Amino acid sequence: MASSISSPPAPKLTVELSLSPTVYSYSDPDPPTLSISITSDADSPITLLTYNSPFHLSSGMTHDSFPIWDLTTDSPVKTTSVRLQRMPLSRARGSGDEQYFLALPPSEKITVSTRFARGNINMRPQSKAVAQQEREEAERSGKARRSIFACGVDGLEPGHRYRVSVAKASLMSFWWVWGTKEDVLVDPGNRDWGLDNLPGQETPLEISEIDAVEFEVKD
Length: 219
Fold this sequence. Notes:
about 220 residues, alpha+beta
């Protein structure tokens, strides 16, 4: 009788969300730092594709991965949402897409962080009222207009308390494979640079409950 070899179960990821500091003033030159820590319980390494997900924080922030709730008004905050058409993702070593492949060693906590604000480091966070005023002035002068919707602390209201969380819908499906990042990447010019020739595992990852984080915004 032939024996069958079963695949190992999909790993469980323990995920923690944090924000530092949890009190922000618009007089501060730098916004808080948003971080996610991920620990895999697998016995061997895995690699995830994190594009536009909570595990790639800067792109996840503009793809509805981090909803913000205004605790003062008990209402959701409208956040910036960006949708771009682009070429298929590449796993070529040294390409711009290499940043989206995240390797998780066995039982080791991996932390990724970004500024809790718009991606442009030269753009200082502004309150909702100031953002609206700047947009109106830009419209009158014909200059490029910024979004009036929030992105991190940018576009929020002073004197309010908020809660940021990870959207469950953004955790429903991840492309992932067994192996290290180096196992996934190929040399530049390789004809197998796309993901079509490296299908991900069909079994979805199990992800722990993720506690939300409360924070306060001041003048």
